[in-house]
Amino acid sequence: MFENLSDRLGGVFDRLTKQGALSEDDVKTALREVRVALLEADVSLPVARDFVKAVQDKATGAAVTKSVTPGQQVVKIVNDELVHVLGGDDAEPGKLKIDSPPAPILMVGLQGSGKTTTTAKLAKRLKDRDGKRVLMASLDTNRPAAMEQLQLLGTQIGVDTLPIVKGETPVQIAKRAKQQATLGGYDVYMLDTAGRLHIDEELIAQAAEVRDVANPRETLLVVDGLTGQDAVNVATEFDDKIGVTGVVLTRMDGDGRGGAALSMRAVTGKPIKFVGLGEKMDALETFEPERIAGRILG
Ligand code: GDP
């Protein structure tokens, strides 16, 4: 997930921790390399700049403790700052507000981002881990076979889907899903909205209309983690126009540069709740800042 960034930072810190005493210049040089490594990982410029500045301020002010070398101390400060940037101050990563059944979860995102796959993965997780009864409904009236795709996934994972009725509008489907979820005693119902290749007015208008009808407890934006800063721009726009409560970054199993994961929280203010790590139905992980920081620093 973060191989390149991890290699680069590993090299910088190896050199730093091997030194006995550190001059201010040593730290400056190391942090310059950190900044370049972050930018190469497609972290947005302001985030990379703030990151380095925060580390520098803390490193300068830090009292030297005897148990660690100055180099180790800098690495610890970098680790803490990474956890912070990744959203480590949020309580309980991956937790969803799905009390008061039936709780609606609205899934939004661009076409091809992995939205339908993620809807099914998350439904499976809620069923298997939390023992929730989940109903899934596809509101995608644009893409041929989108509804059948979700239905097929539902059968695979043993999660119910709303019966397909052709000719309904997304709002009508959302209303029917709510009714069925209430009558059927479901804990959660998930609304998989239509995606587009780009954010356009129609997409936003449709998602907003569904949001107003469904009054979702969570609105999760699914974005392709391989697209780096673009993923962050997409999230900013969706949040401005529809309001999102959390982000799912997909394709984090690919050789993306990881920048989206690092910039997302700082730029959008929204937590990454889960990461997609493959096409299989169990390839969804809670986004845990501490663990991710650990992976980045190796
Ligand atoms: P949608 O148009 O946003 O609903 O996208 P889909 O859910 O149909 O996914 C598009 C493709 O991406 C499918 O082939 C999925 O199997 C694949 N995909 C989704 N999530 C991931 C992921 O986390 N990793 C990988 N490698 N592929 C994924």
TrEMBL record:
Subunit structure, as described in the record: Part of the signal recognition particle protein translocation system, which is composed of SRP and FtsY. SRP is a ribonucleoprotein composed of Ffh and a 4.5S RNA molecule.
Record field: catalytic activity: GTP + H2O = GDP + phosphate + H(+)
Any one GO molecular function term: 7S RNA binding
Protein name from the UniProt record: Signal recognition particle protein
Domain notes per entry: Composed of three domains: the N-terminal N domain, which is responsible for interactions with the ribosome, the central G domain, which binds GTP, and the C-terminal M domain, which binds the RNA and the signal sequence of the RNC.
Main localization of the protein described in the UniProt heading: membrane
Topology class, membrane: Peripheral membrane protein
Localization of this protein: Cell inner membrane; Cytoplasm
Record-listed E.C. numbers: 3.6.5.4
Sequence positions that bind GTP: 109-116, 192-196, 250-253
Record-level GO cellular component terms: plasma membrane; signal recognition particle
Keyword tags: Cytoplasm, GTP-binding, Hydrolase, Nucleotide-binding, Ribonucleoprotein, RNA-binding, Signal recognition particle
Family per similarity comment: Belongs to the GTP-binding SRP family. SRP54 subfamily.
Alphabetical GO biological process terms: SRP-dependent cotranslational protein targeting to membrane
Physiological role: Involved in targeting and insertion of nascent membrane proteins into the cytoplasmic membrane. Binds to the hydrophobic signal sequence of the ribosome-nascent chain (RNC) as it emerges from the ribosomes. The SRP-RNC complex is then targeted to the cytoplasmic membrane where it interacts with the SRP receptor FtsY. Interaction with FtsY leads to the transfer of the RNC complex to the Sec translocase for insertion into the membrane, the hydrolysis of GTP by both Ffh and FtsY, and the dissociation of the SRP-FtsY complex into the individual components.
Keyword Electron transport appears in the UniProt entry: no
Domain SRP54-type proteins GTP-binding: 271-284
Organism: Palleronia pontilimi
Gene: ffh
